[in-house]
Amino acid sequence: MSRPQEPHRPFLPFGNPFRMISPKGSYLSPKLLSLLNTFEETLASRIKKLRPAGKEDVLRLSWMRSAMNSLCEIHTDIKTLITALELPVCDWDDKWIDVYMDNSVNLLDISIAFTSEISRLKQGNLFLQCALHNLGGASKQLVRASSSLDGWRQHINGKNPRLDNCFCVMDSFAQKLDLPKIKNSAKGKVLMRAMCGVKVVTLWVCSIFAATFSGSAKKLMDLQAPEPCLWANDFADLQSFVNTEIRTLYSSGKFMVLKELEAVDAGVKKLYPVVRDGVGPIEGDEPLKLSVLELGKSAGKLSEGLDLLGNDVDKFFGIVLTGRDALLCNLRVGGNLSDPVRANKNVVVS
Q1: pLDDT per position as a tens digit, 223-274
Q2: CA distance 219 to 217
Q3: What are the phi and psi torsion angles at 341 (to 5°)?
Q4: Which end of the chain has less neighbouring CB within 10 Å, N or C?
């Protein structure tokens, strides 16, 4: 988690991803319009719920869990919409299938990278537990505790190569927000508009995770939604609030912006100079004992929060994978899986 900050640049250098759904020549029946409005209103409500109560709540593990759970709900919503549209996969245009498949494989890759980083952060807890175990002992054990604390700092500041691959995937993902034009299918227009909304919100949340894990605001994305969408204003408001706070944190010189991780780091910095020389036991040193207790509590909150966040990312991975598998199955049954490249476009977990 690290490194120098880059200036904030507006994202989306390409065109309007929603231009294929202009009102001109794209009549929607009352039923389809109702389905689309219901989907977008639900999306807007989920976005509103993600608004943190205050700046101090941005990038807490609890908020990141809420963000990931919202993605799970949103991706479940798109499945519900597909069913309600009564649009069997056999009637899908090849371009729609390609969009869905490309989106899903990118999200699976991103989820794997996030799971890898969460696991790496959790491994740091082993250093903390070893340090806490030795902090109540003799001077020799204090030296061991000091070594463990130093090991934690080096581990946390290490680099995860899977994140680099994730960043490349996200950049590629962002460049494909410009979805295909839909000419002769009102249902297809509704589907593509809904899928694009899901994609924008998903990519933005993933960029927050990327910025948090990388230690750099460079990975934060500023995405645009067109005004006609019912969720556009709520998304713009949420994005502005959260992105501004994250950039403020990084501009202040911090590179650990995750609140629970920052609390542990503060505790380690407080204890490390004291125990580094192993002067003696801490039994009679009340301030030092209090610092050890505080570090133990902070470490416990971090470990528990990472466990829960990891479960949420796994749940999201499962939802995306299930949807992808269902589409592939339907394509095989319908005999539409003629393209061997599409059939073999599977995510590789290594």
Answers
A1: 988 768 999 999 999 999 999 999 999 998 887 889 999 999 999 998 888 8
A2: 5
A3: -65, -45
A4: C
19: which DSSP letter? G
The rounded distance, in Å, linking the Cα atoms of 311 and 126 is 20
What does each C-alpha distance from 71 to 44, 68, 246 come to in angstroms? 13, 5, 20
| Cβ pair 94, 115 in contact under 8 A | no
* Residue 91 one-letter amino acid: D
Q: Could you tell me the end-to-end alpha-carbon distance of the chain, in angstroms, rounded to an integer? A: 22
Locate 133 and state its tokens: 């175990």
Contacts of 277 (CB under 8 A, 6+ apart): 146
pLDDT digits (tens, 9 = 90+) for 43-91: 999 999 999 989 999 999 999 999 999 999 999 999 999 889 887 777 7
**Cβ 43 vs Cβ 77: under 8 Å:** yes
3-state SS string for 165-221: HHHHHHHHHHCCCCCCCCCCCHHHHHHHHHHHHHHHHHHHHHHHHHHHHHCCHHHCC
Tokens at residue 344, please? 């073999």
Q: How many residues does the chain have?
A: 350
Q: What is the pLDDT of residues 127-158, one digit of tens each?
A: 999 999 888 666 667 888 889 999 999 999 99
* Residue of 207, 50, 10 lying closest to 114 (CA atoms): 207
Collapsing DSSP to helix, strand or coil, 81 comes out as helix
Tokens representing residue 74 in the block: 């949103």
Any idea which residue has 């604390």 for tokens?
A: 149
Q: How far apart are CA 130 and CA 126, in angstroms?
A: 6
120 contacts 158 by C-beta, under 8 angstroms: yes
In this prediction the pTM is 0.85
| Long-range own/partner contacts, residues 232-236 (CB < 8 A, 24 or more apart) | 234/44, 234/47, 234/48, 235/44, 235/47, 235/200, 235/201, 235/204
